[in-house]
Design a protein that fits this description.
Layout (H helix, E strand, L loop, with lengths): L2 H16 L15 E9 L3 H12 L4 E5 L20 E2 L2 E2 L4 H12 L23 H15 L2 E4 L2 E8 L2 E8 L2 E12 L5 H5 L4 E2 L7 E7 L11 E5 L7 H22 L5 E4 L10 E2 L7 H6 L6 E4 L7 E2 L2 E2 L11 E3 L11 E3 L8 H7 L2 H21 L8 H10 L16
Helix pairs in contact: 2-4, 2-9, 3-4, 9-10
Length: 418
C-alpha cells in the first residue's frame, strides 16, 4: 500500500474509532471493598425502576441491583408493554415518576394516549401502549441522571443486619460486591430479600399462570399493538430453577401453537422470558384483603391509589370482576413493611395482600406508585436515621407530592375526591 493510501486508511480508521464507545476490561470488584449507600433497591422491574429514580431524586445515595441487562421487568422483558390504570372516570389517580416515563415514551415514539375522558368499553382500553425498547432506555437514562448506581447482572448473595442498617453482598460474573446501606427496598416481585431474611411470606399452592408473549405474521410494531400470548401454567418465579422451567414451557407451548395453526406465518417477535403474575407476597404490618379492595377501604396511611378489576387468572382463563362505580382502593404504607421488620420495605406485586386483592394490586401503574412511595419513605428514613414506620406520614405525603405523585388525601390535579 502506498504511503498516501496508508495515511488515508489510518485517518478513516481513527475517525471511525472516535465515534465508538470506549470499552475497557472490568476487573472483579475487590471482595474486601465495601461501598456505602443510603438506599439499595433490589430488582429493576416495574416498581424497582421507579423506586431507584425516586430515592436518588430525594437525595439518597442509591444503588440498584438488577439480575438482567435492562430495566422495566414485566413492561419490557416480559412484553406486557401496556401499563395501567392511571385514570378513573376521566380523572388521574396515579401520577409521578412512572407516569412521567410513560408519557415521555409515548411522546418520543410519536404514539397516542387513550382518550381518558371517555368511559372505556373495557378496562384495558385505558391502558397505555408503550414502546418497551424505548421505555427501557428512558428508564435507564432517568436513573443515570438522578445519580443511581446501576448494577446489572448481579443478585443478592447474602444480607445481614448491621449497626446502621444492612450489609448486602451481591454477586455476578466476575463480580463480588459488598454494600453497607441504611435502607433496603425489595422490588424482586417475589419478596426474595425478605425471604432471605426469614421474614414471613404468603403464597398459595397453585400460582396463576404466567404468559409467554410473541407475535407471528407481520412485523411487530412496538408502541402500536399488543403481542399475542399463551399461558404458562404453573409458572413460578420463586427461584432460577422454576423460572427456567416456566420459560422453557412457555417457549414450547408457543412452538406447538405455531406448528398447529400458524404454520405459514413467521415468528417475528418473542420475549426473552415468561411474564409472571404471582409468587410470594409479604405478610406486612397490615394485609389488604379482598373486602378492603372491593369496598375501597380508606387506610389512614394510604400512600397511593389503585384501580383494576379483580383479575384472577386460572386454567380456564380469566373473567375480570370490575369494581363497583365510585369504588377506589388504596395501598397503605403498612402493607409495604414486612411484619416485625426494620429498615426494609417491599414494593410491587409482593405487597401484603390476600390473593384476590393482589390480583388487582399487581398491575403496573399501582406497582409504579408503590415503588415511588417506598422510595420516599426509605430516603426519609435514611436521612432521619430511623425506620420506615417511624417517619412522620406528613413528611412522606409532602415529598411524594413534591415529586408529582398523587396521595389519596390530596384533591388537586383533578384527583378523585374524597
Amino acid at each position: 500500500m502506498k504511503r498516501r493510501d496508508l495515511l488515508k486508511a489510518a485517518s478513516i480508521t481513527a475517525g471511525a474509532m472516535a465515534f465508538q464507545p470506549l470499552v475497557t476490561r472490568a476487573d472483579t470488584v475487590p471482595s474486601d471493598a465495601t461501598q456505602a449507600a443510603d438506599v439499595v433497591v433490589v430488582g429493576g422491574g416495574t416498581a424497582g425502576t421507579i423506586a431507584a429514580i425516586q430515592a436518588a431524586r430525594a437525595g439518597a445515595k442509591t444503588v440498584l441491583i438488577e439480575h438482567g441487562s435492562q430495566l422495566g421487568g414485566t413492561t419490557t422483558v416480559g412484553g406486557v408493554c401496556f401499563p395501567g390504570l392511571f385514570h378513573v372516570g376521566g380523572k388521574q389517580i396515579i401520577s409521578g415518576i412512572g407516569w412521567e416515563l410513560v408519557e415521555k415514551a409515548v411522546a418520543i415514539d410519536g404514539g397516542k394516549l387513550p382518550d381518558f375522558s371517555k368511559p372505556p368499553q373495557a378496562h384495558w382500553h385505558h391502558q397505555v401502549l408503550v414502546n418497551p425498547f424505548l421505555y427501557s432506555v428512558l428508564a435507564e437514562e432517568a436513573c443515570l441522571e438522578a445519580g443511581v448506581s446501576i448494577c446489572y447482572y448481579e443478585f443478592p448473595f447474602s444480607v445481614e443486619q448491621s449497626a446502621d442498617g444492612w450489609l448486602l453482598e451481591s454477586v455476578g460474573p466476575g463480580t463480588r460486591r459488598r454494600i453497607a446501606c441504611k435502607q433496603l427496598i425489595d422490588c424482586t416481585g417475589g419478596a426474595d430479600v425478605a425471604g432471605m431474611l426469614g421474614l414471613e411470606r404468603l403464597r398459595e399452592e397453585e400460582t396463576q399462570p404466567g404468559s409467554m408473549l410473541f407475535k407471528v405474521g407481520d412485523a411487530f410494531h412496538p408502541g402500536r399493538e399488543r403481542l399475542q400470548q399463551v399461558y404458562v401454567h404453573g409458572a413460578d418465579s420463586s427461584n432460577s430453577a422454576t423460572r427456567t422451567q416456566a420459560t422453557i414451557a412457555g417457549r414450547q407451548t408457543m412452538l406447538k401453537h405455531i406448528r398447529k395453526g400458524l404454520a405459514r406465518k413467521r415468528l417475528v417477535q418473542m420475549q426473552p422470558e415468561a411474564a409472571f403474575r404471582e409468587s410470594y407476597r409479604i405478610r406486612g404490618e397490615t394485609i389488604v384483603t379482598h373486602d378492603d379492595y372491593v369496598s375501597g377501604r380508606r387506610f389512614d396511611d394510604a400512600v397511593c391509589w389503585a384501580f383494576y378489576p379483580v383479575d384472577l387468572h386460572t386454567r380456564s382463563g380469566v373473567r375480570p370482576k370490575p369494581l363497583a362505580e365510585g369504588v377506589l382502593p388504596c395501598v397503605p404504607l403498612r402493607a409495604l413493611v414486612p411484619k416485625g421488620s426494620r429498615n426494609i420495605l417491599v414494593a410491587g406485586r409482593s405487597v401484603s395482600s390476600d390473593r384476590l386483592a393482589n390480583s388487582g394490586l399487581r398491575v403496573q401503574a399501582t406497582c409504579m406508585a408503590m415503588g415511588q412511595a417506598a422510595a420516599v419513605t426509605a430516603a426519609l428514613a435514611a436521612k432521619q436515621k430511623t425506620t420506615p414506620l417511624d417517619v412522620p406520614f406528613g413528611d412522606i405525603a409532602r415529598v411524594l407530592r413534591e415529586h408529582g405523585a398523587i396521595v389519596p388525601a390530596q384533591k388537586p390535579h383533578s384527583s378523585v375526591t374524597e
